[in-house]
Amino acid sequence: MRVASDRPHTFRDGSQGWIHKLNGDHPKPVIRHEKPAPVIDAEAMMNRWLLKTTGKEIADLANSLCVRASALLELKAAWAPEHRAFAFPMRSGATGRVVGIRLRNEKGDKWAVKGSKSGIFLPWAPVQPWACIVEGPTSTAACLSLGLFGIGRPSCSSGTPDIVAAYLRLKIGRLVIISDNDPDKELAGHIYNPGLDGAKRLAETIGIPCATIILPCKDIREFVRLGGTAEDLESIVKSCVWKTH
To answer: CB–CB of 182/196 below 8 Å?
Structure first.
């Protein structure tokens, strides 16, 4: 119950009122200190894990993903024991250096090491006249399994500056953007398709000769699992219209 005070307080502007103390003391403001973002040496971290990763671990992962083990080796994938997951380096398109790390566990859950910067999944493999732009490291591994050069975006709507930088640095001729065949979704009464919409935005903003295709399955990894070949993909690409927006 509030009890009125018989000692009104005169404020600086001349007005008067009452100040009620809580438990005899004025509450002190709480000062919150933001914790600094963790800083990691992603390159050193990946190198440490690579040294301890066995051929069997890579072979088992390749088997579960239906990709070639050589593709995972070209991506420099490694087992990260403290995370109980496989690690895929994300690289700067301009330099090729590792700037972040994507993790994937046996259940298919995906996340990034704290302190990672976003980058692209760029293989150590011979560059070809055209490169496939796909989503994520495992789809990149599927492209490499077909003998094609693949670059993986970190998501369906990101990675554009790094892709442009890699295109210029590696002197790639043309880009084929392979959209994931996602189901349509509805948001606030609007229908959208994450994979296709992201591919179209990339084609419209990248300023590089490119073609956009949708495979008749979920993604390029499913295409490989179902027996799709590089020749099959090349025949689809040949029927595409190449554009520079």
So the answer is: yes
- pLDDT tens digits for 177-229? 999 888 777 766 677 788 888 898 998 888 888 999 998 899 999 999 999 99
* Tokens coding 172: 């790639």
9-10 and 16-17 strand pairing? antiparallel
- List the structure tokens of 184: 């349509």
CATH for the 42-238 domain, from 3.40.50.720, 3.40.1410.10, 3.40.1360.10, 3.30.450.20:
3.40.1360.10
What residues form DSSP beta bridges with 135? 153
Please answer whether residues 123 and 72 qualify as being in contact, where contact means their C-beta atoms are separated by less than 8 angstroms. Answer: no
In which residue are the tokens 């609007």 written? Answer: 190
Its pTM stands at 0.81
Report the chain's C-alpha Rg in angstroms: 26
Between CA 83 and CA 35 the distance in angstroms is 23
User: What's phi and psi for 243, nearest 5 deg?
Assistant: -130, 150
Q: Residues 158-187: pLDDT tens digits?
A: 999 999 999 999 999 889 999 988 877 776
C-alpha span between 101 and 111 (Å, rounded): 9
Q: What is the largest CA-CA distance in the chain?
A: 92
For the record, the structure tokens of 78 come out as 């490694």
